[in-house]
Amino acid sequence: MKSIDVLLLSRKDIVGLMLTPGDVVSVVEEAMLEHAAGTYEMHPKIGVHPTGTDPANFIHAMPAYLHKLGACGLKWVAGFARNHQQGLPNVTGLQVYNDTATGIPLAIMDCSYLTGLRTAAVSAIAARRCARTSAETLALVGCGFEGTMHLRFLTTEIPTIREIRLRDVRDEAMATLREQAAAWFKGEIVLCADNQSCIDGADVISTCTNGDEQIIRPEWFKPGAFGVGIEGGCAYTPEALHQANKFVVDDVALAEYFERISRDRKTEDGQPDPEFPGGMPSIYATIGEIVAGKKRGRDSESERIIAIPIGMAICDIAVAHLAYHAAVSRGIGQSFQLA
Ligand SMILES: NC(=O)c1ccc[n+]([C@@H]2O[C@H](COP(=O)([O-])OP(=O)(O)OC[C@H]3O[C@@H](n4cnc5c(N)ncnc54)[C@H](O)[C@@H]3O)[C@@H](O)[C@H]2O)c1
User: Fold this and answer.
1) Into how many domains does the chain fold?
2) Coil, helix or strand at residue 328
């Protein structure tokens, strides 16, 4: 019997691959096209919820298979928003990458950095097709790990952005992100003292918070704006969410599943905490349908469009596929003999 060697890739290894936004967007777009064509297998995330420190804690299992790309595997990912109190990341976990011909695990890698790449890529892919082509102002609320990734991807995919407005409840997070962004962004970067000064009138509104505050008010989300939220619809007031002319998700079954399981969810102080405040708006399209040209993105300068990507395992496996092949070709990572 042949031995089976599995490649181990740490977060440092994956960061060291220097995958560019262009590389990641391109492979995630392939996943989106497969989603629209139906050449994939994926299931709404199942999970466990060790709620000791926070009712919103989760660990999700996310298996995925992309037929044309030839990629399959499983992400086992935790989200514990209070981890920062212990100097630990919110999102952590493992990505297993399997061989589609034999089923053998080829690699086990850190999934936290990969998740940042894929989530920012999905938001940027949606933004490029749904934001106004003349979009100049980007509001980013939540300047943690995902916010940092989103800023890079959104400004790359929407090169017309001239002004970035940053908002976080932690001043140090805003200041750190401004310092980092100033190294590569040539326009203006404004730190905002409140939500209104960040969001009001912005062309593109990206929210990367922990979803514990309904930040976006309808009067600040002006005609022509595009919003993308990665905390479900939790960053929107019901009125702001439901005034969108087009409501877009990544996967209908995923969105419906999260809507259903969160209907009776409560915050620690007993307040209702549904994934979509006021219920889920009627879905216009998936991002994949827009990428594939089956549905149009923006039709007019005045439409308000909101995209809520819940997070698709097929996008994770596409980025893991990219990382695995880049690591093998550059000799990065360590192997261990599984059997
Ligand atoms: N949809 C997806 O595919 C997907 C993927 C990954 C992560 N997520 C979610 O994205 C969120 C952010 O993840 P992260 O890894 O960046 O976490 P993080 O803890 O690194 O960052 C969150 C940031 O939001 C800030 N914040 C919290 N509440 C705020 C508020 N009311 N106003 C302004 N800022 C606020 C925090 O101070 C922090 O800087 C989490 O909710 C996570 O579950 C979604």
Assistant:
1) 2
2) helix
Domain identity same for 76 and 212: no
Q: What is the pLDDT of residues 12-47, one digit of tens each?
A: 999 999 999 999 999 999 999 999 999 999 999 899
| Cα distance between residue 198 and residue 206, in whole Å | 11
Q: Is 144 in the pocket of ligand 1 (CB under 6 A)?
A: yes
Q: How far apart are CA 71 and CA 63, in angstroms?
A: 11
In-domain check, residue 125: no
The answer to whether residues 150 and 293 belong to one domain is yes
174-189 as b/e: b if 16+ CB within 10 A: beebbeebeeebeeeb
Task: Please state, in angstroms and rounded to a whole number, the distance separating the CA atoms of residues 278 and 328.
Answer: 48
- Among protein residues, the one with the nearest Cα to ligand 1's atom 28 is 209
Residue 191 has pLDDT above 90, yes or no: yes
Residues 203 and 156 in one domain: yes
Domain boundaries, position 288: 130-311
The CATH number of the domain where 146 resides is what?
3.40.50.720
pLDDT digits (tens, 9 = 90+) for 41-77: 999 989 999 987 788 899 999 999 999 999 999 999 9
Q: How many residues does the chain have?
A: 339
Residues 145 and 51 in one domain: no
pTM: predicted TM-score of the whole model, two decimal places: 0.97
Contact 266, 272 (CB under 8 A): yes
Question: Is the C-beta atom of 74 inside 6 A of ligand 1?
Answer: no
Pocket test for ligand 1, best of 24, 76, 168, 287 (most atoms within 8 A of CB): 168
The answer to whether residue 93 sits within a structural domain is yes
Residue nearest to atom 40 of ligand 1 (CA): 210
* CA 17 to ligand 1 center in whole angstroms: 25
Residue 232, ligand 1, Cβ within 6 A: no
CATH classification of the domain holding 73: 3.30.1780.10
Q: Which atom of ligand 1 is nearest to the CA of 142?
A: 24
| Maximum CA extent, the chain | 67
